[in-house]
Design goal:
single chain; alpha+beta; 8 helices
Length: about 280
């Protein structure tokens, strides 16, 4: 990402439209240093860049007024009644006095893939609330993007929010940046290199695999139960069949015993009537 230009419109200390050419000189490093006296808008430029790329972050809300963290609404509309300090709001004071209720920042840059990008973030005050709009034009896109989440994903792929402090920083706060903890640096690097993304994907894959194994086990258990149920039904049917056969055999046995008794009785009668049969 090579920054080319930013345009500030009625934002912070910048009344009206102000464009800054940030294109690096030919064959020079992509490093931009902004110099100026205190109170002449250096921090405003840095903050507008942060706003343009990541919107109203907790960091900006915390730094706006010493001693407290503003709400997003207070950051845009202003908070002049607080004992903690005075905050005019996001829109330039002189511009608001003229009846203007909108402020914006436009950032233009290009990338090594040949893409030319133009990002515009705009805030409009409406009564006691505000509306925020975001638009991204790119020479590689068929149409401009206007969905905030989609645009933010594109931005975060280039400048993760956790790493933005290392791209845009106030020289007066260099010690704060230099004292960043190992955990903060690690989180920032993971965001920039998308390591966290891959780590999350790996964790998701582990969970999916566990769910699959659990599901397979449950399916296996269900299959075993179904197999046992089928076996029980088979045995029950066999039992009924054998019970029926036993009854039939018992009945047949009783008939044979009766026939045998009848044969014995007739034999006794014949022996009694013909003595020769007893020899």
């Amino acid at each position: 990402m090579i920054l080319e230009e930013i345009t500030l419109s009625d934002i912070f200390s910048y009344n009206g439209n102000h464009s800054l050419n940030l294109s690096p000189a030919k064959n020079k490093k992509n490093l931009i240093i902004i110099l100026g006296n205190n109170g002449h808008g250096k921090t405003s430029i840095l903050n507008t860049l942060k706003l343009g790329f990541h919107g109203i972050t907790d960091e900006l809300k915390k730094e706006a007024q010493e001693g407290r963290t503003l709400s997003a609404s207070e950051y845009v509309l202003g908070n002049t009644n607080s004992h903690a300090g005075h905050w005019e709001g996001l829109i330039n004071r002189l511009s608001r006095q003229k009846g203007n209720n909108a402020a914006s920042i436009t950032i233009r840059w290009h990338e090594t893939d040949g893409g030319e990008y133009s990002l515009k973030r705009e805030w409009t005050i409406k009564g006691q609330s505000y509306e925020e709009k975001l638009r991204l034009d790119c020479s590689l896109f068929p149409t401009p993007l206007s969905d905030t989440d989609e645009i933010q994903d594109v931005i975060n792929e280039r400048i993760p929010h956790e790493f933005s402090q290392f791209f845009f920083f106030d020289g007066e706060k260099i010690r704060q940046i230099a004292s960043a903890t190992t955990e903060e640096l690690q989180a920032a690097m993971e965001g920039l290199l998308k390591i966290k993304l891959f780590e999350n994907l790996r964790q998701d894959m582990r969970e999916i695999a566990d769910d699959y194994r659990k599901s397979a086990q449950e399916k296996g258990d269900r299959a075993d139960v179904e197999e046992l149920d089928a076996a029980i039904k088979t045995f029950q049917a066999a039992k009924l069949r054998l019970t029926k056969e036993i009854k039939e055999l018992k009945y047949e046995n009783e008939n044979l015993e009766a026939d045998l008794e009848e044969v014995k009785r007739k034999l006794d009668v014949l022996q009694a009537s013909d003595p020769r049969l007893n020899k």
